[in-house]
Amino acid sequence: MRERKERPNTRFHGRVAGDRPCAAPGCAEAGEFRAPPLDGAAGGYDGPPAFRWFCLDHVRAFNAGYNYFEGMSAEEIHAAQRPIAGWEREARAFARAGTDAGPRWADFVDPLDAISARFRRESAPERKDGKPLSGQDRASLKVLGLEPDADRTALRRRYSELVRRYHPDRNGGDRSHENTLAKVIAAYQQLRQAPAFA
């Protein structure tokens, strides 16, 4: 059987070491645990609250006798115990008085053109029929040398033309255009399945 190590537990949740005396009358121990002030939080004071500090024994006694609902009427207690208590308060608006306005969207740099390209697509379609074009659609159209408004017939016609131009069987066995031909085939396959050419 493994022997258990005896370690003195010197840590307590909430302990803050310091030179403060315990706030309980007649106690000579150090005040290492905080408790709310006697008068509650000071109204209108913008800063940390003035806590009372107790030793461990006195903070335990304070916690044992603490009653959140003390001084509340039955209606106030019922309102505080509702499941949505606290959620119905209106959120504070961000204040602009006396401060600079935040940056506009136009002030941001978009090196990949990701946001502005999407915005252009959604706000002003590049096709007259209103069908959307993705970034990949536009790149494939560029490879084939087609306009954004090209239809399925124009796509097939342009594909046939480029295959005849770059295929080694059609140009005397010249294999120097194989990379271009592969790009043309990939672009055509992608556009065939794109919603704009359905």
Quickly list its features:
single chain, 198 residues, Helix Hairpins, two-stranded antiparallel sheet, 2 strands, elongated
Q: Let me know the CATH homologous superfamily of the largest domain.
A: DnaJ domain
- Rg, rounded, reads 37 Å
Q: Architecture of the largest domain, CATH level 2?
A: Orthogonal Bundle
Strand order of the largest sheet: 1-2
Low-confidence stretches: none
Q: What proportion strand?
A: under 5%
**SSE string:** EEHHHHHH
Structural class comes to mainly alpha
Assigned CATH class of the largest domain: Mainly Alpha
The geometry reads as: elongated
Please count the beta strands (DSSP E, at least 2 residues each): 2
Alpha plus pi helix count: 6
The whole-number mean of residue pLDDT values reads 77
Can you give me a brief rundown of this structure?
By secondary structure, the protein is mainly alpha-helical.
